[in-house]
Specification:
By secondary structure, this protein is of the alpha+beta class. It has one helix at about 1-30, and strands at about 45-50, 55-60, 65-70, 80-85, 85-90, 95-100, 110, 125-130, 135-140, 145-150, 165-170, 180-185. The strands form 4 sheets. The protein has a 4-stranded antiparallel beta sheet with strand order 1-12-9-8, with no helix packed on it. A 4-stranded antiparallel beta sheet has the order 4-5-6-7. Strands 2-3 form a two-stranded antiparallel ribbon.
């Protein structure tokens, strides 16, 4: 009887330690691009490489991801990053959802509940490509590293005003596919 209680207590302690360490790791491992952006607040903004002053934002009223001008008070433009630079999740606390890739060339980038991607877990993961000579890195779908988040409008070389999609590295200008994680304010 005493032995059973000890095992039970040990298992409970192990469970609490595991849960505590998991919480520390999940909240304490922000990721930056190759630019090693600061993370003092625990959140970052994802700024376009060529279109300075424009960041990725979760849609407040829809499931899309949008490119908006920087507003450090907009919670939909702040991201918590969980993982390493080669495999991470972008979580938006205001939306309580993660950013996800939907598949295909020029696939939509959307917000969804974690663990619900039709592509599986890798559809909700991202990675940073190498830093380019202009100081920004490709933000790549982990499910298909050939697909990069695209800041360019579909009809010209200026910031897009429609929901964000991906694009292959070899299709058009590469600068518009690059980003930096910057301090959220």
């Amino acid at each position: 009887m005493t032995r059973t209680k000890r095992v039970s207590r040990s298992r409970r302690r192990l469970g609490l330690v595991t849960a505590g360490l998991t919480a520390v790791f999940l909240t304490g491992l922000p990721v930056a691009s190759a630019s090693a952006a600061p993370h003092a607040s625990g959140s970052v903004m994802i700024e376009s490489g060529p279109f300075h002053g424009y960041v990725l934002c979760a849609g407040a009223n829809d499931e899309s991801v949008w490119l908006k001008t920087i507003n450090t008070t907009d919670p939909y433009c702040k991201w918590k990053v969980f993982g390493s630079s080669s495999q991470f999740t972008l979580y938006n606390a205001a939306k309580d959802q993660v950013m996800a890739y939907t598949g295909g060339n020029q696939g939509a980038v959307v917000m969804e509940d974690q663990g619900t991607s039709p592509l599986g877990a890798n559809g909700e993961l991202w990675s940073w490509g190498g830093e380019e000579d202009w100081g920004a890195s490709a933000l790549q779908s982990f499910w298909d590293s050939g697909q990069n988040v695209d800041a360019m409008a579909t009809d010209g070389d200026y910031p897009r005003t429609d929901p964000v999609h991906t694009r292959g590295w070899r299709h058009g200008n590469q600068r518009e596919l690059t980003w930096n994680a910057i301090s959220a304010g």
